[in-house]
């Protein structure tokens, strides 16, 4: 198995992923109060700020885990040409990403299955439904 080298993006990649959360009424009321008093522009602004503050507070722990688990931080993108090169070299990829891992839409499921040994993504994994189905048993 080989380590992954980041691949430069070729096209527009979404800058965010939609996440839905459920909040208790009291917590939501506190957020609305702070928004109405002008501390935050809206609920989303408050939630993003709270998340960034927690990520900053836990930054050292995150860095240690990223290094220990050998995760690529940020964007990891795989196209058909890259996976065909991996196949020709007789290698298999262990995809480990904290951020976004993406397999291009032109990658056939059989090629993904032949070249991807495992997928571990903390964040989002974008691939066609067929590729995700082909790799389902290899995703952690």
UniProtKB/TrEMBL annotation:
What Pfam family is a match for this entry?
Answer: RHH_8
Name the record gives this protein = CopG family transcriptional regulator
Q: Which organism is it from?
A: Acidovorax facilis
